[in-house]
Amino acid sequence: DLFGSVEPLLPSLREDGVAVGVLGAGPYPPGVVALQELLDAASEELEPEDVWEPEDMNDTCLYIFTSGTTGLPKAARVSHLKAVMCLSFYELVGASSRDVVYLALPLYHMAGSLLGIVGCLGIGATCVLKEKFSASQFWDDCCAEGVTVFQYIGELCRYLVNQPQRPGERQHGLRLAVGSGLRPDVWRSFQQRFGPVRIVETYGMSEGNVSLFNYTG
């Protein structure tokens, strides 16, 4: 869907030796790798471990977009070790395989993809992906999908608190909200209005090496 934004840059990317792979039917210009064809042709059998196992867990696993806590927006390096550590994120905040996690964060950020998707894989939880957050649809989604855990950034909770009050907005199964950037006034309003949802505020820069968890509330 985003290939049109990249296409004008293809000549300069090729000059810099940057490979461009696109998931989708195409057709695509010369020099672009059509990933769907490769996936269709790939074997279902795993390659031997020594082919895909990293030589060093501190080697780069992937690059992920950060809005620039330590400067300008950039691609932040994520090691194999850091990616593996994200498997335990939801366990650290008190979720389990019985939970249903609601995720509406962008997947090009660490919070959505590594903490959210990889975190769900780590505990075997169900993940409900919402393409775009909607404050007006949120509680209906929670009831329809049996959501028990919500991963937020602070503004999402503010949007929910700013919605007009409606009947039944406390009739849900949400028990845990976890994320970053929730201000104290919104925190208090959220719990007063929507019930005794446990909130765990976390903080960890994509390009940093320290994470903080507010377990005490």
UniProtKB/TrEMBL annotation:
Similarity section: Belongs to the ATP-dependent AMP-binding enzyme family.
Domain AMP-dependent synthetase/ligase: 48-211
Gene for this chain: Slc27a3_0
UniProt-recorded name of the protein: Long-chain-fatty-acid--CoA ligase
Listed transmembrane segments: 107-129
Keyword Membrane: yes
GO molecular-function terms, A-Z: long-chain fatty acid-CoA ligase activity
GO cellular component, as recorded: endoplasmic reticulum membrane; plasma membrane
Keywords from the named record: Ligase, Lipid metabolism, Membrane, Transmembrane, Transmembrane helix
Annotated catalysed reactions: a very long-chain fatty acid + ATP + CoA = a very long-chain fatty acyl-CoA + AMP + diphosphate; tetracosanoate + ATP + CoA = tetracosanoyl-CoA + AMP + diphosphate
Organism field: Rhadina sibilatrix
